[in-house]
Amino acid sequence: MSMPPITIADAGLAGLTLGRCLKQKGIPSILLERVSSSPRYNYGITLHPWAYQPLLNVLQMDESSFRERLSIDASRGGMGSISADRLLTGVDTTPGTFRCHRGRLEQFLQEDQDIRWEHTIKEIETTPQKVIVRIQNEQAIESDVLIGTDGVHSQVRKSLAPDIQLKVLPFVVFNGKRRMSLDSFQNTIAPQMQSLSIIQCRREDVALQIAVNQYTATYIDVEYTYSRPARQNDPLHKPDRPILGATDIPEEFYAELQELEDLGQAYKEMFDVTKVREDRILHFLMRSTLGTEQEIKDLADRGVLLVGDAVHAMPLLGGEGGNNAMKDGVDLAEHIAAHGPQGIKTFSSARYERWRKGVEQSEQRLAEIHSPAKASL
């Protein structure tokens, strides 16, 4: 007898990886995604072999084809190169680690999946036999289990485990994106990046990062990050800001950029205040969370499992959220294939210690990034 479809809340990295691996094993799933099918992400993420190689094993795909398709510089024959010498922490840069284009990665994972776009979850009901998810259009979807992969602002978590709260860490982070002409990039940024896809430096406790998001024949998409620890009475640290407040950029941010000195040409170009004012800037909050083992078990007993950032969120800097989301998806698919949907009750207990250590280490790395040790350019 075939398994009934498993309901997955959200078509992000965890949900897409889980759904793709389940399909490969002959287990149907339905992914509920609140947004439309338009491409959502145009930025790079660092992918590690421990996260993507298990996926490729399931899909029976070779690594070179994967990287040639998804590296941020794939269009010019690159492989998303990263160098540990140009990073501020001991990030794992073992052979195979590369910068991957997030949007193309999700498009790759979406292939041949049953994704219900523009399906916003309105209500979740659990019974001893079923989990019932009601969508805004009043449609009800029933399944044996519900897998909540819906990220740091998880609606599943908020609805069924509201006591699992996000923690905002005491750091100030601003992220900008800029599209540059090929000539401008080659004259200002490329010499210092030396064919790498990401570089970082530090000035006292301020960390600066430049990363290429995408190469084309005529332009380059670049992003940059300015970050530091929060200070006393800090006008830039707003832990209680609303989600929509991410675009409210205080003048004090531009004043701090103006004070940066002794920067290499690439950093001078990217953090030039006049140019930054014209860019799309977002105020990031560094969030983390991890419910107790009992809270997660109680959910599993009701037929609901949270994975990825929905349950063990890591800060955007220093965290490995995307990698852990993919690893959760691959491993959960294996667990369900071996134990059936009810296997979710043992999956979380087996993973909990790894989740706990991952969140703890991500917070430590965030602090290390801003440690006022010797800076390098």
Task: Tell me about this structure.
It contains 13 helices and 17 strands. The chain is an alpha/beta fold and 377 residues long. The protein has a 5-stranded parallel beta sheet. The protein has a 5-stranded antiparallel beta sheet with strand order 12-13-14-11-15. It has a 3-stranded antiparallel beta sheet with strand order 6-7-8. Strand 7 (131-135) and strand 8 form a beta hairpin. Helix 2 packs parallel to helix 12 and helix 11 runs antiparallel to helix 13. The longest helix is centred in the C-terminal third of the chain and has 26 residues, at 344-369. It starts with 5 loop residues before the first strand and ends in an 8-residue tail after the last helix. The mean pLDDT is 93.
Rounded to an integer, what's the Rg over CA atoms?
A: 21 Å
What does the largest sheet look like?
Answer: 5 strands, parallel
Extended strand count: 17
Helix-strand sequence: EHEEHHEHEEEEEHEEHHEEEHHHEEHEHH
- DSSP helix count? 13
Distance between the termini: 60 Å
Strand content: 15-25%
- Counting helices, strands and paired strands, the structural category is alpha/beta
- Uncertain spans: none
- The residue-averaged pLDDT reads 93
Rough shape?
A: globular
| Order of strands, widest sheet | 5-2-1-9-17
Measured as a percent range, the helix fraction is 25-40%
